[in-house]
Amino acid sequence: MTTPNSPGPGSGGASAAPAARGGEPAPYGAAVIEVLGVSKTYGGAAPALADVSLTVRAGEAVAIVGPSGSGKSTLLNMIAGLDRPTAGSVTVGGDRVDRMSETASARYRRARVGMVFQFFNLLDDLTVLDNVLLPAQLAGLGRAEARGRAVDLLDYLGVGRHAAAYPGRLSGGERQRVAVARALMNRPTVLLADEPTGALDRASGRDVQELLLELSRDGLTILLVTHDTALADACATRAVELVDGAVVRDAPVGWNASASGTVSARGTTSGSGNAGVAR
Amino acid sequence: MRLGGGRAAATRRVVLGGLGRRRAQTAVLVLTVLTAVTASLLAAGLLVGSSAPFDRAFAQQHGAHLTAEFDAAKTTTAQLAATGRLSGVAATAGPFPTATLHTTVTDTSEAPGTSGSRPGSGFGLPPLAVVGRGDPGGAVDRVVLVRGDWPDSPGEIALSTSLDIRLPVGTRLTVDGLRGKQELTVVGIVRSTSHTADAWVTPAQLAALAADGAQTGYQMLYRLDTAGTDADLRAGRAAVEAALPAGALAGTQSYLDLRREANAATGAYVPFVAAFGGLGLAMSTLIIGIVVSGAVGAARWRIGVLKSLGFTPGQVVRAYVGQTLVPAAVGIGLGVVLGNLLAVPVLADQADAYGGPRPSIPLWVDVAVVAGAVALVAGAAVASALRAGRMPAVEAISLGRAPRADRGRLARRLAGRLPLPRPLSLGLANPFARPARATVMAAAVGLGALGVTFAVGLGTTLTMIQKENSRDLAADVVVYTGRGGEGAVMNVPAGPGEVQGGPVEEPGAAPGAADPAAVAAALAALPGTAGYFGVARTQLDVRGMVGAADATALTGDLSVAARRLVSGRWLDAPGEAVVDSRFLRAAGLRVGARATVIDGAHAATLLIVGESFDVDDTPSLVTASSSLTGLGLSLAPGEFGVDLKAGTALADYLRAAGDALSPLGAGAAQNEGGESTVIVAMISLITTLTLMIAAVAVLGVLNTVVLDTRERVHDLGVFKALGMSPRQTIAMVVTSVAGIGAVAGLVGVPLGIALHHAVVPLMGDAVSTGMPSAYVDVYGGWAVVGLALGGLVIAAAGALLPATWAAGTRTAIALRTE
């Protein structure tokens, strides 16, 4: 079954919205996201990010892991264009995101980025369907034009029956599925997920995990911030570990121990196994 | 442990912390309260100023209850001075020497303005009653210098503001004397509420003029112990007359006559000043209520957190009342200062209109407005804080994060289906999430639209009145023949035994006046003449009416002289008359009835065919000159009015007319009319008050939108994360109030029109005149459309700044805000 992020009859076909004005998908393996020497400082405090460099290739699913306050969400915000680095550069699909104006940044997010948040960030005074339609409508598509794809996405994600309901009535897992549907509405090049299972119970979390895995298998480039190593292990092909704003490890998923001492993907405690991949 | 001190310190920290955290909101609160207090002060000041302006001005100037003129040949200065010691006389000024001067304008320093025709060089002024006085102050009639200086040297003269002709400071006048011409320079313009003279010079200058043959007399100014009624004034006059040689008293002027005249004039403006004043106060009250209750309501989340930490409801109320009163106190203080500063030009405009000295805002008004504002702020803050303070902490925290999501859902669904860009449909539905706040904001915008509509209509009405009634004649060109009765009004000392009650016209023709028939023939021969009419003026008695009526007798083409009417039609034929409202009321007649005019033993009956608009205080009548033939009067025209053919160049016509008329002893001038200082002052006042009302409305909107965007900052972050551009954000925020503004405008505009339609006739009633429908029906179709959009403009103006702030908020920061 094709996921809704790929063209084809399963994703809405002729009756669905035309292909969203997303970016051209990069050839598999090409560099999609390039973060070079990025630092971020707020006032006189310790840097939230310190000279972080990172490359994400098309089709990769990269997990950003690390303890609370390590700068994971800050890095994601930089890539999403929601914040600007104090130093360094962020390039997505060949475009310097860190240099974009607010308007260009908004257009970039509409076209290339789908975002999923820990606390869903659905608008409680809009129906589920209206929430999903928003990115397409902000991009200029009419309601009728975009409706087909939105309904297909909701059906695909198993929450189609809640289209007319308000988010407050849904469970956490269902809300996160709606959020994923919204994130996929404009066929983004990159999916950025910030602790997507952080507010969910175990069962719901596994549902979302399966969903992300499927999207990854379908070739969607995913950047996933999480402290859930099971999620990272299941969904990601690579893990980048941040500690105090710096990359301490960047390795394929499956390494045994981390430099920070967090529990490894395979469940072993810190201190055992490899010393860790140098930055 | 000092619990009391600890609690107070904690409350203080809450107050200061809240102020510091919400800097933008605090600033908006200060600005809004400042503007509202300023508007309230001005409105209250205007209302107080409209209350008995003559009496206040008269009291301030120690006005003369009785102005008496004496024949210099029949009394001495010692005898006159002794009348100051009569029983019942409280104070005196004088005796001052007086003279009547015939002057000609030699040169004007700038274009003069007048409510009649425009005098230029060579124009002969009506006889001026001049007083020789060394000091503008004194015990009685402390005149006010409006412009320039008091004369303190020979060759200088100061003119009264009560003159019908305005000449600027620097104008040179030539006085025709027995031994040749003397020149005087206008050095000042003076306001005397008692109207004691047309002009003042130094006593030495007057002596020089008297030696040169100017008619002389003396003037005494009296303040009486008892002067409340006409009987009191007659008694005072009688006492003075009895104390002097027979025939010494030439005439007197009673302040009660002036008072009646002034109150009638100012009465025309009290209705609209009251309307604006009331509107200003109502809006200020509403806006302060919106701002303060909104500020406390927006802090609901914080209140919930404080309660969860152990603050009692009482402490919460004290903290938030304090948090509101601190910036409000700053706003009130600044508003009082600004209001008193702005009052200087605003009340000056009102004083110019009322003809009185320039007042300031009384101290008790300052105190009352401050007390009212503090009470309003405290009351609104206590009410809001009590509501929040009593709420369970959990509810306060959850409600404080965002408006209840279930509010306005239907509106959102319906708006979402509109064929509009999504940001606009989102914005249109926003007000329904906070219906109470939206309603109050709509009221503020509606009142603003009402005020602007009312002001536009009133300004249009006054401008029309000024344009159409500032000229004595309704014609393009005025031709003077040098005869009397040209419409100039002057103060002329009464003859022996006469009681002077007010200004009189000078009858009779001056030597060398042009032959009206020759002038008419010359005008008819000029190629540019479309039509002309001759004007002669006199006074006639009317059967059934007490007092005389001013009569204007027309020759030539009556249709050219047509003016705007209250009702009926213009003259068509001899035997018809057009009269003013005062005439109809005084004679107990109506349009369609017949009036009998009398001169001595002769009478003539006229059919009243129309009612004219006339604000003069004397009943007036216009008829064809031939209608009055039976009265046996010599009514040769003293001036002519000429309408030009379309396409005729005025300058060319005046040149040709000058060539044709000069040999006949006549002259032609453009009939420009002048600015009425009263109307100019009122229009200036209207403009200031309207801007203030609009500013208060805009600030009310601004405050509401600031609160709204602060509450919804997280949602804004989500929108931006999903790709809403800054322009789309601004469009969404502005649209959220534009809809309200448009609706409020649709309600406010008809109400403003209704207010105008109610006030304008009242203004006419105050000066005993009807109002032509054209002065009431001033709102054209496109004007109404434009005004209706005014509500939208007010709303959009208030929303633009916070919308721009919202668009510029960093998304990451907005998403962190919960």
Q: Would you give an account of this structure?
A:
Chain A is of the alpha/beta class. Helix content of chain A is 29%, strand content 21%. Chain A contains 7 helices and 10 strands. Chain A has a 6-stranded mixed sheet with strand order 6-7-8-3-9-10, sandwiched between helices. A 4-stranded antiparallel sheet of chain A has the order 2-1-4-5, with helices on one face. Chain A is globular. Residues 6-22 and 256-279 of chain A have low confidence and may be disordered. In chain B, strand 17 (594-599) and strand 18 (602-612) form a beta hairpin. In chain B, helix 8 runs parallel beside helix 11 (363-390). The model of chain B is unreliable at 110-118 and 484-511 (pLDDT under 50). Chain B is an alpha+beta fold and 818 residues long. Chain B has 24 helices and 21 strands. The radius of gyration of chain B is 34 Å and the shape is elongated. Chains A and B meet through helix 2 and helix 3 of A and helix 13, helix 20, helix 21 and helix 24 of B.
Task: Describe this protein with a few key phrases.
heterodimer; A: 279 residues; alpha/beta; six-stranded mixed β-sheet; four-stranded antiparallel β-sheet; 7 helices; 10 strands; disordered C terminus; B: 818 residues; alpha+beta; eleven-stranded mixed β-sheet; six-stranded mixed β-barrel; 24 helices
